[in-house]
Amino acid sequence: MAQDTSEAPPGIESARSADILHRLRRKHRDPEADHKHPVNVTHYETASLGERLADQLSAAMGSWPFIIVQSCLLVVWVYLNVWAVFIAHWDAYPFILLNLVLSFQATYAGPIVLLAGNRQSQKDRITLEHAADESDKGEVQINRILVEIRKNTALTLQILNELEAENA
Amino acid sequence: MAQEAEMPTGRAVVASEHKHPVNVLFHDEATLGERVADKVASGIGSWWFLGIQSVFIAVWITLNVEAVVNHWDPYPFILLNLAFTIQAAYTGPVLLLSGNRQAQKDRLRLEHTAEVAEESERATIAILEEIERNTEATLKVLEHLQKRRAAKA
After folding, report:
1. Long-range CB contacts (< 8 A, 24+ apart) of A13-17?
2. How far apart are CA B29 and CA A5, in angstroms?
């Protein structure tokens, strides 16, 4: 009857959170990593073609390489049209064609930003739905624990009655 | 879980400023590019930026309308237009950059939630099993008492 039910040794908590941190670190920058959370699985691993494309598009445009390449192109364009002597200036000051090109980029950037935002809000919606499911599940578990404790209390009361009858 | 869990020490979280593992990974362990991205996003998305931009535009237009200095960009301000376009051409990608960072954090947060949920489910089941064992023991105590009373009677 006297079973050993010693508690987990101190420090096990931090060992667990170290494990968690370690596992998270591996997934941190890899969207292709396997996901554990159902919402992440749904969002990343079962995304449709259009959704994948949207993710890749926003990942590509929202990256340092994009910004750096754009800056280089800008400088080269201006340089060639102001100082270059070996080719004809196709877009002299005030760079009206460059203006058009950049406006063109901005015209697409807006919708792409919204595309990415919509993906995120879709994910947020699924996250909340999942949280609601989880909370239902948690309630069921808590109820089971409560029922079990009530049973225990009833037994303890019976024991008390026995003892009181004995001592009366 | 129950008590405050000590952050693991070692190379993992050197000079950690955050407590939550997701913040540790996301902020304390951000790469240079990620740090700069965060700084740029918070710089552009600030009242300071908006204020300075507005003053800059007002000064530009005033100087090119009023006869103070040589008008380098007279009406309809074609160079100013180019400046606006360049700004817009950069804010788009920066917006996406910052959005991608947030999405990355969201992904990480959910993974963390899943890890923690697994732990807490294990704990809940352990509690239930422990109580069931207690009930069994209590039941046996009751049976012993009843037997004793029956023997006395």
Report:
1. A13/B1, A13/B2, A13/B3, A13/B5, A13/B6, A14/B5, A14/B6, A14/B7, A14/B8, A15/B8, A16/B1, A16/B5, A16/B119, A17/B5, A17/B6, A17/B7, A17/B8, A17/B21
2. 40
* Substitution target from A23, A41, A44, A67 for chain B, most B beta carbons within 10 A: A67
Q: Which two tokens stand for residue A127?
A: 């996250």
d(C-alpha B141, C-alpha A162), whole Å: 11
Separation in Å, CA of B108 to nearest CA in chain A: 6
With 0.90 as the threshold, say if the pTM is over it: no
Indicate the pLDDT class of residue B69, thresholds 50, 70 and 90. Answer: confident
The ipTM is 0.78
**pLDDT tens readout for residues A62-104:** 999 999 999 999 999 999 999 888 888 999 888 999 999 999 9
- CA-to-CA distance for A27 and B107, rounded, in angstroms? 9
CB contact, 8 Å: A115 with chain B?
no
Give tens-digit pLDDT for B18-36: 888 888 888 888 899 999 9
